[in-house]
Specification:
The chain is α/β, with parallel strands linked by helices. The protein folds into two domains: 25-72 and 271-558, pyruvate-formate lyase- activating enzyme (Alpha-Beta Horseshoe), CATH 3.80.30.30; 77-264, Beta Complex (Endonuclease - Pi-scei, Chain A, domain 1), CATH 2.170.16.10. 21% of the residues lie in helices and 23% in strands. It is built from 13 helices and 22 strands. The protein has helices at 190-193, 201-211, 281-285, 293-301, 324-327, 330-339, 357-363, 380-386, 393-405, 425-437, 454-465, 470-476, 485-501; strands at 25-29, 38-42, 49-50, 61-63, 66-67, 77-78, 82-84, 90-92, 101-108, 111-134, 139-142, 147-150, 153-156, 234-251, 255-258, 261-264, 286-290, 311-313, 344-348, 369-375, 411-417, 442-447. The protein has a seven-stranded mixed sheet with strand order 3-4-18-19-20-21-22. Strands 6, 9, 10, 11 and 14 form a five-stranded antiparallel sheet that branches. Strand 15 and strand 16 (261-264) form a beta hairpin. Helix 4 runs parallel beside helix 6.
């Protein structure tokens, strides 16, 4: 959905290249953590956004902390890069899971120290590859945007001394921090594991990785200073001249140990959504941040006229996009809503929401809360092509499980279904089975909508990647944004037995559906109010004020998640 931009208080508008006039602009910021992104920090005059009266959604108010989307991943490492786990073992970054405990670093006074941290998000993309070779034999394959910690601070793998690509980058004058090259674990007998070598950090870690001791209480590195006698001078940075699948994670400390050196992490995930800017790069590179949002929201919620109606987040732009890792607006938003007795819902495509699960679980004791997760593509190659930087389906399933483990309900949008690409029976069966296994409260299957902006971007991608499908899409979307009725009928017939098989055909409490829905199964594409799966909206409290009744709208208005 795209609603009018909120008012911004300011005396004089500032005109920015590629941007509409912004009132209330405080500053435009480009920081090393987000190369290629500009954050336009503004003071917002309003926080609560009223949904247009002709919308069919079952809520009246929304909050958008950000305008634009900073999701797209810019850092990345090859999948076989070894990440140091909290127990001293190593694990390939491609195999990491959200929630696992790993080693990061934090500054204590003059020195950095190793500390235990947690994987908050995990995703993949495809990027041009560069090999970094160190004097001790350590090698890392990463994107040019990836950053490592040197004795002179954080540096990108590649960069330039001048021009638009100017940034700190690795040269043969640099030395990375960490303990460097270790050893692969051996398949050894129990007797071999009983010994333990005492020595410097490099020898300590090498022994752990070599023998994989059964007793691991001395394996963690917590509190050890980031110093080493390993020769970690940069010997060579080589452009490999090819693109390959790469992976990255978000951690609690903002870094992790990759192949024995300190590596920066990205703050979150990626998606394709559009704002009132350029429908492609501007949306991904120009992000408006409402820095005073929480203070404004508290004032609005304190007004006597506020009726504590349901407030939805994530129906326009994702509140847990990468910028949230820097600005941390959502904890204040959640606290303000819950403290005022206002029900809320959150829809997200990423996994940074996991950070705020304790806060959400506490808030759910005071107000009704609904949580929704969107996922669509299950084929690895297709996911990498169409959603580079977006958390993998596995990561999002793990988020669903974490939400339900925290005692909260979670609805899943299997959206958008792409005709000819993700609508095979086997794919839909596998997706719905996995969603059920993850503990989702309900699911809604939604075919792709192609509104202006999204249509141009997707059509270009389709012509480039799957030209044989272009005639079919022209026929299916001949009427505009909404797929042809015959396809919706076909997809409903394909999905209905699967929903019944996995228990999603009776989604008690789902969306705004009443008890008199008869025999129509919930979750069928385009069946009106069931577009919101059970658990994604807060349960209605007796006597609570709900959104005003709204006329039924065409399904085109129900697209909540875009590619």
């Amino acid at each position: 959905m795209r609603w009018d931009a909120q008012r911004l208080d300011a005396e004089d508008p500032a005109t920015l290249p590629g941007m509409p006039t912004l009132r209330g602009l405080l500053r435009s910021v480009q920081v090393p953590e987000f190369p290629g992104l500009t954050f336009h920090e503004v003071r917002s005059k309003s926080a609560l956004n009223e949904v247009p009266g002709d919308s069919a959604v079952p809520f009246r108010w929304t909050i958008n902390p950000y305008r634009g989307c900073s999701h797209a991943c810019v850092y990345c490492l090859r999948g076989d890069t070894l990440v140091l786990m909290a127990d001293g073992r190593q694990k390939a970054i491609a195999d990491l899971r959200v929630g696992e405990r790993i080693v990061g670093t934090e500054r204590r006074g003059t020195y950095r120290h190793y500390v235990t941290t947690e994987v908050l998000a995990h995703w993949s993309t495809v990027k041009p590859a560069h090999r970094v070779r160190l004097a001790d034999g350590t090698e890392l394959v990463a994107s040019g945007d990836h950053r490592f910690l040197t004795g002179r601070g954080w540096k990108h793998v590649t960069g330039a001394m001048a021009g638009r690509d100017r940034r700190p980058y690795l040269t043969t004058n640099d030395e990375l921090l960490g303990f460097g090259r270790s050893a692969d674990a051996l398949d050894v007998c129990a007797d071999h594991r009983r010994g333990y070598l005492r020595g410097g950090l490099r020898e300590h870690v090498r022994f752990i990785h070599l023998v994989d001791p059964a007793i691991r209480r001395t394996c963690p590195l917590d509190g050890i200073a980031v110093t080493s006698d390993a020769d970690l001078r940069v010997v060579e940075v080589q452009d490999l001249g090819l693109e390959m699948p790469m992976y990255d994670i978000t951690t609690g400390t903002g870094d992790f140990i990759a192949n024995g050196v300190v590596s920066h992490n990205c703050f979150a995930r990626g998606t394709h959504q559009w704002l009132e800017l350029d429908t492609g790069r501007d949306f991904d590179s120009q992000v408006v941040v409402k820095t005073n949002l929480v203070d404004v929201l508290r004032r609005e919620l304190a007004r006597p006229s506020w009726q504590r109606e349901h407030v939805a987040l994530g129906t326009n732009t994702d509140p847990y996009q990468r910028a949230e890792g820097r600005y941390r607006l959502m904890p204040g938003v959640i606290g303000a809503l819950a403290g005022s007795g206002t029900p809320l819902s959150i829809l997200t495509k990423g996994t940074l929401l996991r950070r705020d699960l304790p806060l959400l679980a506490a808030a759910a004791r005071d107000v009704p809360i609904g949580l929704g997760v969107s996922m669509a593509i299950w084929d690895g190659d297709l996911h990498a092509s169409l959603e580079p930087g977006v958390p993998s389906p596995r990561s999002r399933l793990e988020l669903v499980r974490a939400i339900t483990d925290a005692g909260l309900s979670c609805g899943v949008f299997l959206a958008p279904v792409l005709p000819g690409l993700t609508d095979r029976l086997a794919d839909l069966d596998a997706a719905l089975g996995a969603i059920a296994e993850a503990g989702a409260s309900g699911v809604t299957v939604v075919p792709l909508h192609l509104r202006p902006g999204a249509r141009e971007w997707f059509s270009a991608w389709l012509a480039r990647e799957h030209p044989q499908l272009v005639p079919r899409y022209q026929q299916l979307y001949r009427r505009g944004a909404v797929v042809a009725p015959e396809y919706r009928t076909w997809l409903a017939g394909r999905v209905a037995p699967l929903l019944a098989r996995y228990g999603f055909d009776r989604q008690a409490g789902g969306a705004a559906r009443g008890a008199d829905v008869g025999d129509t199964p919930a979750g069928i594409p385009g069946d009106g109010e069931s577009d919101f799966p059970a658990g994604s909206l807060p349960p209605t409290r007796p006597g609570a004020r709900t959104a005003q009744a709204r006329p039924a709208a065409a399904p085109a208005g129900e697209q909540l998640t875009l590619l």
